[in-house]
Here is the input.
Amino acid sequence: MKTHGPATIVTANNIFANVDELGEMTDNIRSLLTLDGVFIFETFYTADFLQNMVFDFIYHEHISLFSVKPLINFFRLHGMELIDAERIPTKGGSLRYTAQLAGGPRKVTPAIAELVDHENKIGLQELATFKVFGAKIDAAKKELHTLLDDLRRQGKKVDGFGASATTTTFLYHLELGNELGCIYDDYKAKQHLFTPGLHLPVLPPDEIYQRKPDYILIIAWRYYQPIMKKHKAFSDQGGKFIVPFPKLQVL
Here is the structure.
């Protein structure tokens, strides 16, 4: 501030959900802005989170979930105004929000009222909505275990793909472990390590053609299309990919 003065734009992409002291952070952002400045941030959207069944985004560093209606009140309490929200596809469905100082020069866009209306229609502030979400995850878990149990009875070998930040939640909530021989991942820094708790080995994808699994469960399921495209040789050799969410598929 002493060197450059206040900012016309402050951005924060995919960190708002990771901050414990949101009020303090927002007050500090407000103090950084010029009178006509804006705060633009992206974070995953609770409505899309529920619709797309992105349950594995619930892990230790994600402290909060966000939607438009409560954020309007939140920013009002901190001397700011939410003026726009744009839907974007990242993180299983996110919003790019724009806020300004209370009484700032920009008008609130129609998107705000439209999204609040959408949230009201789907009961986003209702506990029952989240109970339905939990029941859907439980049903998907049962369906996946039925498939894996059947494959095991047939003597089929199943490995996993994707040692991402969501993998631990995925494995533990779905109670997977013995069903998988290992997990493959393209990222070299993760290879030849082990998953937390379950200690499944993380191997380079080249090992697919040495181990020759019959099926690969795509744990990083939001990216199943590029994963399948990159590892088409596995399919060409008769292997099958299992995509667990949002609808169970064997491809």
Remarks:
- The domain at 7-125 is CATH 3.40.50.150 (Rossmann fold).
- The mean pLDDT is 95.
- Residues 128 and 185 are 37 Å apart (CA to CA).
- The first helix runs from residue 22 to 32.
